[in-house]
Amino acid sequence: MRFDTESTICAIATGAEGAFRGAIRVTGPESLAIVAKALESSNATAWKVSRATRLLSSIELPVLGSVDVAVFVWPDGRSYTGQPSVELHCLGNIQILQSIQARLIECGAVLAQPGEFTLRAFLAGRLDLTQCEAVLGVIHASNDRSLNVALSQLAGGLSEPLAHLRTTLVNLLADIEAGLDFVDEDISFISQSQITERLEQSLDVVREMLHQMESRAGQTVQLQVAIVGPPNAGKSSFINAIAKQPISIVSSEPGTTRDYVRLRLNLENASIDLLDTAGLEDIEGTTPRALAQGFTQQQIENADLILYCLSVEDSESAEWEFESRSVPIWLIRTKCDLPSVGRDLSPGYDAVFSISIKHTESIDRVLKGLSDWVATKMESFNQVVPLTAARCQASLNNALLALANAKEAAEFRLGDEVIASEIRLSLDEIGLVAGTVYTDDILDALFSRFCIGK
Ligand SMILES: Nc1nc2c(ncn2[C@@H]2O[C@H](COP(=O)(O)OP(=O)(O)OP(=O)(O)O)[C@@H](O)[C@H]2O)c(=O)[nH]1
Ligand SMILES: [Mg+2]
After folding, report:
1. Which domains does the chain have, with CATH numbers?
2. Less Cβ crowding at N or C end of the chain, within 10 Å?
């Protein structure tokens, strides 16, 4: 990873899968000149803007011809990266986007490396490391739930209390160090009891942050798997077979399950929450059976994986509607001890299992599948937000130790030099979390995991 900020970089900032609108980001000292050249803008004065501006223009592209673009210009340092920046917005067609990107490179921009935009924001002091990792979390968030966790981290989370703690300790250190210059004259700017008190307050803040981080880490990794499907498909029987005990009511009557039932299942790599839901049906109203539909929808939205149950004897129920897919959908053919109607099913499922509650090995096969899925899922999860937690936790624990040592030194009157050096150590550790101090390793490890354009 290069850490230079002198080059002007560009990249497509929107996904490759095609969307209504696409954007290309350009940032660096020459952004405006390069974009003006690429657009062959005859109106050079339009580029001499002094504040953030939106302009309409067009760009001449080989084969594609003239394409309309909206140009957002941040001429000064008030952009995401703290450098002059431009965004070109156009139709989200990948050929158009790539062609504009190629034109910008021709005009002097360099293709950005993964995470380079966020790296520049960090180097400009716009974001601290915890916020950068939260940006990464947002990019990788697989569903609304993990997105919320990542966003709450981005919205402040640790950054603010960390900055506050740092200021408190810097002030305390200044007070102690001021006294160090006058030791011979026996002048002191702060009493030992004041030092102890202020250290105790900082220790409380660090303890609280560690506590918050632990609960956040737990929240991020609790994967949810929803068992859904038409009424009477055998969903409750399936969860009971996995639990090896009756936790959900089973009956031949359709519409048995109303409230969802949660089973925390410990697999090799992590625990997952398995949810039995009310059978999907098209009913409205305020009856408990109709209201249960809302619960089921909620579970579907929160799920990281959906197990869609369809009985082999069912020839009528609808299949999973794939347009609304954002997570993997597995088809679970239930009741396979019964004669099958032999219906053709969509090839769109991510995996297919046949089960019968009468054959435990068929249930074990699904469990094995879940175990493998969790292992892969945890790998990507572990690289994202919890990684922040692990690294921050280690640093905060070191800071806690240094502060406790400082407090002990104050209590046993070991001398202000000792207290000051322990406070300095704690500040270094806090700096590692807050991003005021960082090592190339940390930066490399973090920013190399971003995708290009972010
Ligand atoms: N033969 C056979 N019957 C099964 C199997 N699994 C479930 N059943 C029967 O199918 C019926 C419905 O089972 P449930 O587990 O209650 O189905 P459900 O999908 O939870 O139904 P709702 O909660 O109403 O949506 C019951 O009579 C079960 O005994 C199976 O593997 N083989
Ligand atoms: Mg049920």
Report:
1. 9-126 (3.30.1360.120), 150-220+384-447 (1.20.120.430), 223-377 (3.40.50.300)
2. N
